[in-house]
């Protein structure tokens, strides 16, 4: 299976004039009629979003990859800044993504200037950053600023998507076909924007995603309900959103059992409703998707537990627990030793009544991947 990489990205377009990127001037750029020209922001391709907790942002190639009105955070710094405790050009400003589109305009306003747009300043080049943490970072949380960078804390429950982005000058110069007009060190600027070079924030997923299906492995499974599905994962740490070493940092080693949730009628995440398999068919072609997805901190393995019950029976059904690791993914990327950030793994649980559960995992992106099979019977036999 060909693996493809999908990014959320925000295009940041600035329209103004600039001769060169220096620190000689801080005056607002004006048009020919004397009116300042605003910095205009846009977004490009993302992944499935709703209200908080919004769940997975975007999807695989087959699922479609569009924005759905999520709230992004934007930073902008003048290029020569080496101490990120310095005042930012754009300081953790919210921007709302479009709905149902891969690309669209972001509305970003400067509250300090009466909600006017941001304006490029003459003689400056800028770097732009973005991040998305859903409600894994409470709204009132202040980012932590140091000279080396800016970070935000997070605590996930399995339903939040975490992403970061930084605009790449050369990529956008090439995309605009402006290589003969704009040098890399002159983007991003009003000068570059006038020549069609617009900053694009390509959002990268920082977590590993698991989706789940269930299918009957025998007729005895017809009266079995899957009540809950969980993975054990680390849950807390920091995301460096601005600076050289961007990404997950200071991960707390404490783990927790995270439960699969489902999307409610209003689009928000809610508790999982028990689901039954379709009636058993020999070729197992009628697997049922359950829940939304579990997004967890990348790791070599996870403890997977499936909780079940038998219709009309007061007898407690012992949960089925197994270790889920990359060796069980039959078509994982060559050389893979762990579950990776930005990859989505489809896990299929084959239900055999109350006797056993056979776990099959299929890797598909976000970036598309492969499949894995976990058979508790075979694992037990091999251990003897």
Provide a descriptive summary of the structure in words.
By secondary structure, the protein is mainly β. The protein folds into two domains: 8-205, no CATH class; 208-383, Immunoglobulin-like (Sandwich), CATH 2.60.40.2630. The protein has helices spanning 169-175, 190-194, 376-383; strands at residues 8-14, 39-43, 71-78, 90-96, 104-106, 126-132, 144-145, 149-155, 163-166, 200-205, 208-216, 224-234, 236-243, 247-249, 255-259, 261-263, 269-271, 275-276, 288-296, 301-310, 320-325, 343-352, 356-365, 371-374. It is elongated, with a radius of gyration of 24 Å.
SSE string:
EEEEEEEEEHHEEEEEEEEEEEEEEEH
Helix content: under 10%
Class by helix and strand content? mainly beta
User: What gap, in angstroms, lies between the N and C termini?
Assistant: 35 Å
Biggest β-sheet strands, sense, barrel? 8 strands, antiparallel
Give a short summary of the structure:
This protein is mostly beta strands. It has helices spanning about 170-175, 190-195, 375-384; strands at about 10-15, 40-45, 70-80, 90-95, 105, 125-130, 145, 150-155, 165, 200-205, 210-215, 225-235, 235-245, 245-250, 255-260, 260-265, 270, 275, 290-295, 300-310, 320-325, 345-350, 355-365, 370-375. It contains 3 helices and 24 strands.
Short descriptors:
24 strands; 2 domains; mainly beta; 384 residues; 5-stranded mixed sheet; 8-stranded antiparallel sheet; disordered N terminus; Immunoglobulin-like
Task: Chart the SSEs and their pairings.
Layout: E1 8-14, E2 39-43, E3 71-78, E4 90-96, E5 104-106, E6 126-132, E7 144-145, E8 149-155, E9 163-166, H1 169-175, H2 190-194, E10 200-205, E11 208-216, E12 224-234, E13 236-243, E14 247-249, E15 255-259, E16 261-263, E17 269-271, E18 275-276, E19 288-296, E20 301-310, E21 320-325, E22 343-352, E23 356-365, E24 371-374, H3 376-383
Parallel strand pairs: 11-22
Antiparallel strand pairs: 1-2, 1-10, 2-5, 3-4, 3-6, 6-9, 7-8, 8-13, 9-10, 11-19, 12-15, 12-18, 12-20, 13-14, 16-17, 20-21, 22-23, 23-24
